[in-house]
Write a structure and sequence with these properties.
With 474 residues, this protein is mainly β. The chain is built from no helices and 53 strands. The protein starts with a strand and ends in an 8-residue tail after the last strand. 53% of the residues are buried. The C terminus is likely disordered.
Length: 474
């Protein structure tokens, strides 16, 4: 442990290993990279992290961590801060301002990559023939003069990002938060329980840009408040991106696709919310093969769906046209998409949990195979119900009708009209429309006595929620 000033390029050679202890700080005193061909193990702790930084500015900043070759794939970094790196020069020196992975797959956990930049690709991270893993990491305030302000993935790269925050990054061209694709080879990064927010791109894909045969998978992710010329939330071009139980909200585009822009794409959306975009929710061009099923699309300025030359054949056939009723008896198109307010808890505070009366509850795909939500709660909940739409799995139920409260021998007695076969859950609250506290769950009865009435506040409210096994929210 200690502070080390780095005055030249340092390396871990192939076949060698280096262990860095907690509370070690590397201050790079010039434009020097840290090259890793062997194994680097830098495991800090929550209170004593390991820092890679510089006191220099401009082009004299350090050149980041550079993992090259399979010999470095066993490298591990835990509780590390990687900041102020700068990738500049010819290929590959202009890729990956903070971290560059070439034919190497190191792992990162609880790390922060911030304020790094690249002249070309990947301000924060660049993955090239790499399957690196990032868990509980923050990738923020990174930038690039080309593509992938936060993350850049290409050439058979399939990195995994779990519980990561990708925030406040910018790209002069495409992919403010994330860019993935290639002219020739597949790129398939995976994002699970991640937040992609506040990123920007001058051209396409403020949060995410998927291009050239890429097939990223996003599960339980929130893509929030990103901006771009086209595709404020995400831009899919010649890709087969998958969005499952995601939220795209409050994204903006100056031209088309405030939430999502699909161009010559086979993108798929299942159980996803696209809402409150500044600009149309979806824009389609040559993307009739895209799939949008069991989604909620609502409140997008300029319309929920727009098409190139106003021709709906550029998108999925009859998408957005209400024809049927879903499990909650809400109007839906033939793909079971609904067009109602998702009723988030508090969007201003960044709380995108569903509330009790959200029509997203129980309106998801009954064939869904995603078993948990973004907090690890079981999906669906209860187990016999349909899953919810969005990243949050809310308890499935709805108020019963004709609830009557009477007083018998000093106790409140509740009676209500039967609704399905039950069971019924009884809640108590001290304020109108509050979530309240669960008091009891009963089956095969439509009455319940509150034996604790004497200890309740002077003003107390009850509500009863009915659940319908095998069906959606009722």
């Amino acid at each position: 442990p200690g502070v080390y000033y780095v005055i030249d390029t340092i390396s871990v050679n192939s076949g060698d290993s280096l262990r860095v202890l907690p509370e070690t700080i590397f201050i790079f005193d010039g434009p020097y990279p840290f090259e890793i061909y062997g194994i680097l193990v830098a495991e800090g702790t929550e209170s004593d992290s390991i820092v890679f930084t510089t006191e220099q500015t401009g082009s004299n900043r350090w050149r980041g961590l550079r993992f090259e070759g399979s010999g470095s794939s066993g490298s591990r970094l835990v509780y590390c801060l990687i900041e102020k790196g700068y990738a500049i020069g010819n290929w590959p020196r202009n890729y990956g301002g903070g971290v560059f992975c070439y034919a190497a797959s190191p792992s990162f956990a609880n790390c922060v990559l911030r304020c790094n930049s690249a002249d070309w690709y990947g301000g924060g991270v660049s993955c090239y023939y790499s399957s690196s893993s990032f868990t509980n990491c923050t990738i923020s305030e990174n930038s690039t003069l080309s593509d992938g302000g936060g993350i850049y993935c290409c050439e058979y790269s399939s990195p995994n990002f779990a519980n990561c925050a990708i925030n406040g990054n910018s790209a002069f061209h495409d992919g403010g938060g994330v860019w993935c694709g290639s002219m020739d080879y597949l790129s398939s990064p995976n994002f699970t329980n991640c937040t992609i927010s506040g990123n920007s791109a001058s051209r396409c894909g403020g949060g995410l840009h998927c291009s050239w045969l890429s097939s990223p998978m996003l599960r339980n992710c929130a893509i929030i408040d990103n901006t771009a010329g086209c595709g404020g939330g995400a831009y899919c071009y010649c890709s087969s991106a998958s969005f499952v139980h995601c939220i795209l909200s409050a994204n903006s585009a100056n031209e088309v696709g405030g939430g999502m822009c699909c161009y010559s794409s086979l993108a798929s959306f299942n159980g996803t919310i696209i809402a409150f975009s500044n600009g149309p929710g979806f824009y389609f061009e040559n993307s009739a093969g895209s799939q949008i099923e069991y989604c909620t699309i609502f409140g997008n300025s300029g319309g929920n769906f727009t098409f190139h030359n106003s021709d709906p054949f550029h998108g999925p056939l009859l998408v957005g046209q209400p024809f049927v009723l879903n499990a909650n008896a809400d109007s839906a198109d033939i793909y079971m998409n609904i067009f109602v307010d998702p009723m988030f808890a508090d969007t201003a505070a960044g709380d995108f949990h569903l509330t009790d009366f959200s029509h997203c509850t129980g309106a998801g795909d009954p064939a869904d195979t995603v078993t948990t939500d973004f907090e690890g709660d079981p999906r669906p909940n209860p187990s016999w119900s349909f899953p919810d739409i969005g990243a949050d799995e809310h308890w499935s139920g709805s108020p019963v009708l004709h609830l009557v409260v009477s007083i018998t021998e000093g106790n409140a007695v509740l009676h209500w009209t039967p609704f399905g076969a039950g069971p019924y859950s009884i809640y108590g609250a001290t304020e109108l429309f509050a979530a309240g506290a669960l008091l009891a769950t009963v089956s095969d009865t439509t009455t319940w006595t509150d034996g604790e009435t004497a200890s309740r506040p002077w003003r107390y409210l009850y509500y009863v929620m009915a659940e319908w096994p095998g069906r959606g929210r009722r």
